[in-house]
């Protein structure tokens, strides 16, 4: 079983990380020495630098441990691991410089420190990704598997199995399901119901799984205490996968009230004042830069719209924004002028006769959205966020789609997680909201930057824009 080998993988990872630290340091030392002038004063002998390396390696490995770089990461993303590596190296660099200051050692090469910390981040990320790639390929071949037993046949169990089957690189093998209501022998995606939950102790003795996942249905939670007691008695690592994932967020925010755990139904990082200030600063700077950068494109678009058909240059439309407040969203006009009643009838359809030839092009390329940079500058919108909708559709969707109104807890955006994943225009509203909620609950500066970088590749040209 994988638990017998995990400690060896961890030790190998420590050795590889230590090797990378040494190589990065030696390369930095070589670069420093090859650029030292013969008459330069204050150059330390090699013995001092080697002595520093002896202390540096265990210190950095401890930092990696503190930054969760030696925890199992079958499902951990590259971005999170990369940010942890960067965090550990920044802490290491600051600590190293602080120690040099305290011991009044001012002759250590600053060039060496810069090259070392930069190179160490790059090489460690490369080494970790190489290890990840090797393990993923091995797991696809059926090696390095983690064996799991599910307790409870529910919607949560099916969703868990779906994800495991779709991602063989994670290396999970589901041995079977225990349930009191579904007949023994029932199959779901080749995973069999082995028996009732009462047989858990017997199954654990005979199969020695690596992990137990409790996937009981909501109506069976009265069994939870008994099943957890059996799992803990066996000593097997146990997970709880709730059957109310449509209510609890992916990263729940918990509080401790004198030992009583309290789960907040919705945690929105952007409700934090500091996070709001950071995002607003990015919006102001980013919108100003984009206005200057795209001003030639906007000028040409304005001329084309003005020449192609009579009517106003800018089309203003009421949308619902932060805290359900309406605002006027700007676009280059892409359709013939119409009455307010006609405008509210519905979305644009394929080959819509109201769309002008110039309008069809600027809608396909999203050039018509560029005036929204001024909405961002005003504070009505953000560069990144859920796309805003018209009031009549908000009223419609709030009744039809669960959790729809949560999107209004943040500023709407010019682009968003749903848009760069293909959910734009005439696509599934439900899927769009799922992606919007993921963004709201998992917001970070890094995620915003990722979406902005993906937008030119996946967000500008809109095949669903008519």
What keywords describe this structure?
six-stranded mixed sheet, alpha/beta, flat, 466 residues
Provide structural commentary:
This protein is of the alpha/beta class and 466 residues long. The chain is built from 16 helices and twelve strands. The strands form four sheets. Strands 3-4-2-1-5-6 form a six-stranded mixed sheet. 27% of the residues are buried.
Give Rg in angstroms: 28 Å
Helix/strand order, N-terminal first: HHHHEHEEEHEHEEEHHEEHHHEHEHHH
Query: What would you call the shape?
Result: flat
Strand content: 5-15%
Distance between the termini: 55 Å
How many separate helices? 16
Total count of strands: 12
Oligomer: single chain
Mean pLDDT: 84
Low-pLDDT residue spans? 38-42
| Structural class category | alpha/beta
Share of helix, binned: 40-55%
Biggest sheet, spatial arrangement of strands: 3-4-2-1-5-6
Main β sheet profile = 6 strands, mixed
Summarize it.
51% of the residues lie in helices and 12% in strands. The protein is of the alpha/beta class and 466 residues long.
Give a topology summary.
Elements: H1 2-34, H2 46-66, H3 78-102, H4 110-140, E1 146-151, H5 155-166, E2 172-178, E3 187-188, E4 191-195, H6 200-207, E5 211-214, H7 224-234, E6 237-240, E7 253-257, E8 260-264, H8 273-293, H9 295-308, E9 314-320, E10 326-332, H10 340-343, H11 357-364, H12 372-378, E11 382-384, H13 391-400, E12 413-415, H14 417-420, H15 429-441, H16 445-459
Parallel strand pairs: 1-2, 1-5, 2-4, 5-6, 11-12
Antiparallel strand pairs: 3-4, 7-8, 9-10
Helix pairs in contact: 1-2, 1-4, 2-3, 3-4, 6-7, 8-12, 9-11
